[in-house]
Amino acid sequence: MEIKRFFCDRIDGDKVILTGEEFHHCVKVTRHKAGFTIIVCIGDGYDYYAKIESVEKESLTAKIFRKEINKNEVSGSLIFFQGVCKELDFIVQKAVELGATRIVPFYSINTNISGIKQDRLQKIVREAAKQCGRARLPDICEPVNFDKAIEISRAAENRVLCYENCRGKTIKDAVAKNSHTLALFVGAEGGFTETEVAYAQEKGVQIVTLGKRILRAETAAVAAMTLGLAALGEL
Ligand code: SAH
Question: Which CATH number is 38's domain given?
């Protein structure tokens, strides 16, 4: 059986204690018992192999016997900016699976959804990271306004915004050779306004196409991240 992974905040020497939802998942859902091996991640890029020593009512203790660098993480960074939309849960799950290192939801002129459930998104991030074998939980912040999102994107060497009215330039064209960091923008169902696209461009963001057809936000998100990672040489 594949060794299951669990996230926790910290380890103490060679001991790790799982509590809360991760304890519940480990013992009640996947039915682990004393003597079973698990992988524990604390978000530092390593997989800690541990043997469960004891299972209590609300927690379990495991002893770490091996530490290995996790090889499933993107080596550079992919910061994914998504316009808040109905499919945000799905998109966040796919972003984690594909390897996004940071997820930034944003409000733009054509978004009419508010009240994002941050707790639920955090849970989706954790579950997806466990399922796809990651050792880091990508950071997902509260939604920011579009101009703030543009500002945050300055952390990346390459910055691209997917726009259905753009013709010609692809993500591959936009990403510089030998670069490692990419900020990628996909709009909500309502898309970007011309003013927003012009603003992004003025701030140094490149406008790119994902092809001739208009994709739904969730399709665009998956396609854009895949193409972005390919352009960075991360596939
Ligand atoms: N509301 C717009 C489409 C929005 S699609 C309309 O109906 O015309 C949602 C988002 O997906 C867009 O903001 C864009 O970021 C991305 N997208 C969809 N199709 C695209 C394409 N062919 N090229 C680039 N981006 C695209």
Answer: 2.40.240.20
Residues in the chain: 235
pLDDT digits (tens, 9 = 90+) for 54-111: 999 999 999 999 999 999 999 999 999 999 999 999 999 999 999 999 999 999 999 8
- Does residue 228 sit in the same domain as residue 120? yes
Residue 156 near residue 76 (C-beta atoms within 8 A): no
Q: Is the pLDDT of residue 12 over 80?
A: yes
Predicted TM-score of the model (pTM): 0.94
Can you give the pLDDT at residue 183?
98
Pocket probe mutation, ligand 1, options 106, 162, 208, max atoms within 8 Å of Cβ: 162
CB 135 within 8 Å of CB 46: yes
Greatest CA span in the chain, whole angstroms?
60
Which of 69, 88, 111 corresponds to the end of one domain?
69
Pocket of ligand 1 (CB under 6 A): 162-164, 186-187, 189-192, 209-211, 213-215, 217, 220
For ligand 1, atom 18, the nearest C-alpha belongs to 215
